[in-house]
Fold each of these.
Amino acid sequence: MRKVNFEEVDAEEVGKECKGVSIRWLITKDIGAKHFAMRMFDVEPKGHTPLHSHEWEHEVFVLEGKGMVLGEGGEEKLKKGDVVFMPSNEKHQFKNTGDEKLRFLCLIPYLD
Amino acid sequence: MRKVNFEEVDAEEVGKECKGVSIRWLITKDIGAKHFAMRMFDVEPKGHTPLHSHEWEHEVFVLEGKGMVLGEGGEEKLKKGDVVFMPSNEKHQFKNTGDEKLRFLCLIPYLD
């Protein structure tokens, strides 16, 4: 097994149509995870991810902060303990709508 | 997309060699998750999961409490923000070693 605390993992700025977003890759192929990856996102106040879609789905768990997720059916507010399943190919965007950091886990499959 | 708060999902007691353990199935095949499932475990003080192994790996994120995870290489202490990758077929066990609930997310692949 392998154990780390998330604070030991470097946060990398995410550029490309994101604003105020950083990512930590917590569990990846590099340590033997063949099926899916665990990432942590921090979104600063007024920050957001791009409005985009892709083949891989998201499984999200909100750890702290307040935000909004936009999907093809409309918006949903986000708070601690919220769980979001974003299906494959659905257009989506995450936004921080609060005054504190929005932090969530976002897991994705390795498709191949 | 589908959003719920974890508190809206019923916690089911886990029997079978577990002590003081409940599970919430947060994201599953039933809502379209084809590749992996998100579950939340609550382990009561002095509670534990069985010492066992299986083909599916675990990706774990500790949300609250204090505990211990035993793997084939020995024990690791657990606290909030800890991340554990438990590989396929490694014998393992989770224990609550604190005075409060130990709560963690544990994700598993759908193997087929």
Amino acid sequence: MFELKKTASSTKARLGLLKTDHGNIKTPIFMPVGTLASVKAVKQDELVKKVKAQIILANTYHLYLRPGCDIIEAAGGLHSFMSWDLPILTDSGGYQIFSLSDNRELKEKGAHFKSHLDGSKHLFTPENVVDIQRALGSDIMMALDECPPYPCSYEYAGESMKLTHRWEKRGREAFLNTEPKYRHKQVQFGIVQGGIFEDLRKESAKYVTDLDFEGIAIGGLSVGEPTELMYEMTDLNTDYLPKDKPRYLMGVGNPANLLHSIARGIDMFDCVMPTRNARNGQIFTRNGYINIMNAKWKNHNVPLDPDFPTDLCQKYKMSYIHHLFRNNEILGLELASLHNLTFYLWLMREVRNRIANDTFYSWYKDRAEIMDRKI
Amino acid sequence: MFELKKTASSTKARLGLLKTDHGNIKTPIFMPVGTLASVKAVKQDELVKKVKAQIILANTYHLYLRPGCDIIEAAGGLHSFMSWDLPILTDSGGYQIFSLSDNRELKEKGAHFKSHLDGSKHLFTPENVVDIQRALGSDIMMALDECPPYPCSYEYAGESMKLTHRWEKRGREAFLNTEPKYRHKQVQFGIVQGGIFEDLRKESAKYVTDLDFEGIAIGGLSVGEPTELMYEMTDLNTDYLPKDKPRYLMGVGNPANLLHSIARGIDMFDCVMPTRNARNGQIFTRNGYINIMNAKWKNHNVPLDPDFPTDLCQKYKMSYIHHLFRNNEILGLELASLHNLTFYLWLMREVRNRIANDTFYSWYKDRAEIMDRKI
């Protein structure tokens, strides 16, 4: 399902093609996050035509709680429920149990947790998250893992990793012993853990590789550790991952993070940042980011960037966008979300072009630094 | 600026063409409300291409307070500020002083009021609302009036009407003695008042007609009085208005209200209902309205109406729209707002076609009754 097309000469950046029954995905790629089966404030046809998204992510934990698998199954699966014909990746819920739920309790069998919505009790096991993702019908499902916090002790990280490994073995078996519910193929990705400890990260990469998932994610990063440490762990992990499988760095990140991680061999990303930050007025551009709420834009009566193909950049004056945000107008959220996602997907195309014509290495570090600056 | 094209045979319904420098408007017409220079949750290009809006309304009171006339003037006027090339009508602020502001005090000179935002003190006069609307640069501006509450005594209604008349006379003079600030023509509409009292309504219609505004609005209705009384006053007023001027019933209404008022000779409408109610989950259709929050839609796995050309009706399952609303997803607000406005503008086209081919009379009463039912 994955073709490695090219590896860059002076970095570990790769070009690939990920094939699914809902379409092929050119990597490196960023996946917009549609937590509750909607990429917030963006319409499905805009995601396809304007953002040029190739795949989106939806959250198993959230959809399991609302609207529930029965509703989505009755609608014919997640693609049909949300009228989305391109690929979907669903996570396993492991990260949300760690970050959102109350009173979680990890047992050998699985993770007991209380819903963050109503306190109701639930259990996710390596097996039932496969069943849930069969009901959702995502093209790519994730195995259940535990995501340890940062910082955590070597001992905790090691025990947690071993639990994740046992869960992933059971999850892989559950996947191999079940069939899709709909008329398209599903694949399963495993997740490497190990905190910020080199030997654990190596061990986990090898263990997860041996389970022969169709793709491998790097989990447990971007949870509060210094950025340099995240890059280091990523770099280390990709050295121990097979070349013929797609690599997905979960929950990362800002534009600079993406470039640095691609240079370290990552193919896939997801993050709420472009949409969440858009709703707070942060606009990403090729030359840095801006905060539209800043008074400097109040009387700025020209568009932001006539050369960038979004309505926010070309069509509207900055004074107007500022006014929309100052007054909580929904249109502001729409324009900024659409812009930031379009920017992220533009960045991935730019990266792919530069890997293809061997100009990625000479370009990415300076560009990452520029994009990391506030304008 | 107004051509009366046809009057229906068995009702007072009219076909007209209202000409402005930003384009011609076929009447009867509904004007989507863009209070703060944004029709809530709808993009400008969607208003043109999908809703097929011909003109929108913006609120002088709101724009005067936020972002302020200086900002809009620096941006080159309201059209330029909000990137909207079709006609705009602005109200005078009279209604918002009545409905929103604290501690208003009416004097002969004008209306003193405190901002509903920060309590700051302001004065609107017949003259300065002309100046403000010159700065906004709307194609159609409204004269300042007082909108009395319902119920109110005959005496209050009469005194209020007389004050409105004196203000309108001054407002008309201010309009005639000032020039547009931008390169397009502006016109001014007067407003008939008189509460629910027949003789006052007649007197006001005659008085306002004599001031020779380019169009005449009927104000002070849809403020809590019984619907039948609103129709009665409208019917009475249009009998005393000149045939060659457009007639605008302010702040009305639901689909049935529009049909009944068109039958009584009204050409123009505005109302927040299609967008505000959309945000609360009320969807208008040809066969009645629905509340998308209702549990009956939870598992309704087909689109609402494949024959009606909105994404809400054709593209998405009702179960999905229900899910979006249950979870406060912005996409739900977007789809419902876009649908309701598209429906309102479709209704106006349908009405115009039926007046043109003389099938309005036989159609409108039954259709109004059907559209007034909850599905």
Amino acid sequence: MAQRIRINVGGTLFITQQETLTSYPNTRLARMNTKMTEYDATDGTYYFDRDPECFASILSMYRHRELHFPKYVCAMKMRNEMQFWGIPQSYMSRCCWKTFYEVDEDIDILDKLAVSSDGKASDVESKNFKERVWVFLDDPSSSQAAKIWHCFYLLVVFVSCLVLCLETVEKFRVKPFIRHVSSNCAQHMPTTHRKVAIKMASSYCLDASPAILYTEAACVVFFTVELLCGLVICPSKKIFFKNFLNAVAVIATVAMWCCLIFEFNKEILASSNRMVYLHAALKFASVLRVLLFFRLAGIFNSLQVLLQALKTSARELLLLFVCVVIATMVFGVIMYYIEFPSESSMNNMFISMWWAVITLTTVGYGDVVPSTILGRLVASVCSVLGLLLLALPVAIVVSNFAEYHRRSKDKQRHLLATCGLRQKYMPRNNIGTILK
Amino acid sequence: MAQRIRINVGGTLFITQQETLTSYPNTRLARMNTKMTEYDATDGTYYFDRDPECFASILSMYRHRELHFPKYVCAMKMRNEMQFWGIPQSYMSRCCWKTFYEVDEDIDILDKLAVSSDGKASDVESKNFKERVWVFLDDPSSSQAAKIWHCFYLLVVFVSCLVLCLETVEKFRVKPFIRHVSSNCAQHMPTTHRKVAIKMASSYCLDASPAILYTEAACVVFFTVELLCGLVICPSKKIFFKNFLNAVAVIATVAMWCCLIFEFNKEILASSNRMVYLHAALKFASVLRVLLFFRLAGIFNSLQVLLQALKTSARELLLLFVCVVIATMVFGVIMYYIEFPSESSMNNMFISMWWAVITLTTVGYGDVVPSTILGRLVASVCSVLGLLLLALPVAIVVSNFAEYHRRSKDKQRHLLATCGLRQKYMPRNNIGTILK
Amino acid sequence: MAQRIRINVGGTLFITQQETLTSYPNTRLARMNTKMTEYDATDGTYYFDRDPECFASILSMYRHRELHFPKYVCAMKMRNEMQFWGIPQSYMSRCCWKTFYEVDEDIDILDKLAVSSDGKASDVESKNFKERVWVFLDDPSSSQAAKIWHCFYLLVVFVSCLVLCLETVEKFRVKPFIRHVSSNCAQHMPTTHRKVAIKMASSYCLDASPAILYTEAACVVFFTVELLCGLVICPSKKIFFKNFLNAVAVIATVAMWCCLIFEFNKEILASSNRMVYLHAALKFASVLRVLLFFRLAGIFNSLQVLLQALKTSARELLLLFVCVVIATMVFGVIMYYIEFPSESSMNNMFISMWWAVITLTTVGYGDVVPSTILGRLVASVCSVLGLLLLALPVAIVVSNFAEYHRRSKDKQRHLLATCGLRQKYMPRNNIGTILK
Amino acid sequence: MAQRIRINVGGTLFITQQETLTSYPNTRLARMNTKMTEYDATDGTYYFDRDPECFASILSMYRHRELHFPKYVCAMKMRNEMQFWGIPQSYMSRCCWKTFYEVDEDIDILDKLAVSSDGKASDVESKNFKERVWVFLDDPSSSQAAKIWHCFYLLVVFVSCLVLCLETVEKFRVKPFIRHVSSNCAQHMPTTHRKVAIKMASSYCLDASPAILYTEAACVVFFTVELLCGLVICPSKKIFFKNFLNAVAVIATVAMWCCLIFEFNKEILASSNRMVYLHAALKFASVLRVLLFFRLAGIFNSLQVLLQALKTSARELLLLFVCVVIATMVFGVIMYYIEFPSESSMNNMFISMWWAVITLTTVGYGDVVPSTILGRLVASVCSVLGLLLLALPVAIVVSNFAEYHRRSKDKQRHLLATCGLRQKYMPRNNIGTILK
């Protein structure tokens, strides 16, 4: 019978044989000998002050020539022990990769959640007045007042967007100006563009009712003041413009000012068609105010987590995009040639691609519909395949977000537990016994 | 070689070194000394009557300077042991948060499920006749008879709703009254409202066929009697009206009575246009009877769990709402300016927002459709993004509900196991050996 | 210091104190004494030949006054041990219900999968000729020949359905008969039904082209022969008609025969309008042949698992139904009153309910669409809520099916492993060492 | 008291009784006797150098007569130990199948992921120039240059597809030829086909604008050169054509050449109607270029994983197909007979099936819509059932893909960990202690 080697790891005794240990010669266990300080000659046992549970798995590796991961141990602890015993991670057998690398995912997510809450202004410790105002304007979670201020800001954004909408409704406009513009405009323009220009002019330049105009003006003034405050008080211009939403706010506010000036000086618009196009461009820029709604992410944590999850799902979003593009092209092209000889509404391939994408996403407007039997068969395949093809990457993004959501909840739970606020799940009967 | 410390926890021996234990000086293990009652001098071992599995993890913390959670242990037990050994929850290392805080979710859900079944009238122990009737009317799960009674109640609700529907169908109406009302009405009204008023009057006041009217009357009487019984017998009015459905029932019943009175005295309606509007308002209120269907939740447990899950998913529903609103505004505004110069049907921004929301939810009616190439490109992006953006919060709500559903099933299983009704999964060969 | 009690369970030593054990007086451990046969006086230890892992958890219960379930142990084993130690299942603490009752789900599913494959004719052991033919006709998985036969049967079903479709296409009909019927028919009928009757007659009675008719006749003969064989050979009539598909086949075949007779004797149809209605009813019955496609479940295991999962998801399907009905009624009624004064197409409440259900399921035909601003707002809410409300029960059914699918896969894996066919995942280096 | 048997497995002592062990007589444990080399007479104990954790479970089997699987052990290790102790896999009790066979799924997936990356040209070790070019052309992941080359290739494919689209747009065509063709064509053709032929000719043969034509020509030349290079350099023709995309490229390129020849010699087209049909066929073949987009899978790993997952989900895709087909037939047939007497647009059964499939997938174009009350009821059921029925198989495919995606991520993590690139998750405080 082979000689038994006794190893005591953290109090648990393991017994094995010499030939078992030599199967991986370059590891700590294989090089063990009786001259080591860990060897206790009195009972012929090696004593190690390490974790016995991980060691059990590691010793099993010497027996089976495969390293399996005990699922209940945290992978980080196992890696630590593997380093101690001199076993590289590449020894981990294939069947255990799933559980062994799972923790990396969690840590990646917690890292990213930490980063997104790190860059905040409120982290600065001792603050003077300027810094405190900056924190107030920049971080809604810094104080109750800041939260209320941001809610008010969002309200103004909402009013401003509402104004944008109401402007376009017939009822809220007074129409004296239209004839003058249209006649004047039309003369300076090439015939082909005339119709569009008149429509543009008639819509953009119409006297919005005064109530609308003054509300708009009030919003612009508010945005301007808020931006100037931020710009003056911010520690550096770089930090200010690194925030995507600040840059958007600056562009939108400038555009809104220009639009207002046009609105009060409509003669400029009538002067030339260049002005009409300039006005249209400014109008487009001023629409960016809609994006200011994303300031909500500062107050509403779930939205921030959602945006974070989307940001880190870049590969999956790309996959979604690629799937949609390839499927659209394939089905669009096939459908065009199938429907071509019939009296279908698919006159060119772009229309059939439009049909394909609207079918793939199961929106199905019904403005373009195949009319041949073969076309309908392909459309059926397209709609089922669309369901499937879109579900695949969407499911991955969804599961990413779900992970972020759950980790973010865990983080909040940990913060609460650490702060001692959440004692309710503590077992009650033992509270008296702590450190008695 | 360092001196070995022997700790016997619940029979399992752990061996470590003094310097390992001193790494966290403020804990019970660091302050251990040979004068403690737990120290047994005969074999130089500390004896603790605690759980050995949790202690293994805690001792590992002293070695690795990181506290990892052994996944197989219930987190509640671990917290209990951590309290005993004087280790705060904040020591738990980041990689184990997932498993360590998972149990809180389960307990939260079981708490909420317990609450929803706690407020029931049937919990009162010794009941007099009044209380027993109250239980009968309030809690369908209290007895078989109560269940049948509630089914009958739901049937009446269904009949009442059917009457509501049939009233609106042309066939079930007799039309002698219309000319009188319309001519009479029209005179008293401003010209602009005339058309609507006539249509309203013609629809609301038309003689519904007698069968319909008498069925309606029967339903109203039934509801009235049921409500009065409940009101008289209920221990306190506060409890009665705290139940949302009772409040709804009261409003709906009163409105139904008023409508019936109008129905039998149509001359009042013809007298003035104020009466027409009053009648319309009452009609709206009487429609609330549809909500009485939610009484089904009392009988049908799954529906109750669903409503409970929705109630606790408030944050996720808010996220869904915010996602939809932001995406609608962004896409609506963009689409309006893109489609504006074309001959599109998007005349104002509200229509383009209507288009956006119908596309985002992939409903796609097709009544408003982009017609330009750029517009269609944006529509494609909108439909894919809609799929994605709605899937994210919906998935979280769905997973919440799934958790509630599973916990509710577990609860039922536990109740069955406790009541001894579910012995079928008990191993058979050992039943004889219990407590022999 | 309290006296230590030494318990050796399956070789693992546990040490505890007397007062710990007496906390649950009615259990086996509390009643332990030195006179038991398990007590070994030589080393003052109780020896039990039980599982040490489960005992660790049970002993912890005496210490913490809460029974926690060690997640890695199979719950069935734990229950077994709990019985031995005299601990009822109701002691299991709430936080561990999830893992403790999880296994019941798996066993329920495996039970149902076993039942669905148990009732098969092929289980009979020693078979005579009649039984063998019965197995051949009833169970496609009994032999390769039976599989081919069932594929051929499905092909005939497909041809028969194709015939059903082609009959309705204008091209495949010859039209001499129509005038005779329509004129004849119309005379005997009340004026209001005339139009429908003519259309019915013109469609049902038209001479289908001979190719169609003879194919139909061939199919009918095939079905008849198959059914007669089954009926003659089947051990009992009860078993034969208990199979839902056999009953369907009988009805469909009889109806097909009658239809064929009508087809060849069209004068009967022209004789009276009763005959026209009888013919229509028979036509409806003969359509049931479509359901014969479900015979595919016998060959295609996944379809069988799907049907099984749907069958056991009855509660969730009911929930889905209830959700759809309540949401349809609520939104339908609200929308009717909102859209009522406008020039909408929602003339009665059934149309607005039709709109509601088509919007809730995000189908969105666009035939009925709200036109007022408020109506569109409600429609937006309806579409988002529909997405959510339908997703909830569907997700539960889906997860049920996924469980069935996975368990069915596990079962196949086990069968393969048991049959020794699936050795590829066996570790190779140890195969030689088995039972040496 | 029964005699106790002491078994020491890997250092852990197990104590049991002889009668316990004999319950499974054909296993290694039952045949144990004191003459074995494993028996140590000095302390009356059997010593085995095996895994103690697995042995605990196996010994429990002798006690409970059921083999339960300890969830934390890797199933592969357990199988290894079961082989050693002579216990067949079929002994595994039903409640543990789930965890016991779970690992097979993971290994199956990793196998398939390995196969898909095995067949690559880049695996060849020592390469000569020809081989290196082959690797460069075949495997984009072999080098940075190969990646860039493949991106450029995809760009050309994109341009080629764009040309395909632009050709079909009215604007990009010059129209002198149309009259000649149509008049000429029409003479040679049967009257019924004339209209289609003219439309075909007018579309296919129109002078595309020269810019379009020359871009097309450039693309064709590029594809030809790339294919010839590949064909010449490839080690064997079999390998070349085994790649599905190469075969597609060859067909598409040949067809594009022919089309170009037709384009520059339009007189041939006018000569006979056979030529028109030939041209149409060639046009169809040249459309296959769209499939070349799948070359993207070589660069974009996620797409490859998606295709792999779809390939192995064949059974589930078949199930999806069967579900759709059966549901379409059932609902199509029912709806036809319901809607038949009304003035519906469902004239034949193929149209009602088209309606059914478009409703089942919730696309809902709205071109065919039921108009009767009963028809709408069936449509409601159809849309809800469609949602459910499609969700079931799609969910399985999605979960398959999710598994593939996660395993593919694990694989990448393992590669990184093995390469030593990913040290960031290594615990830092212990790095110095490795193998000191």
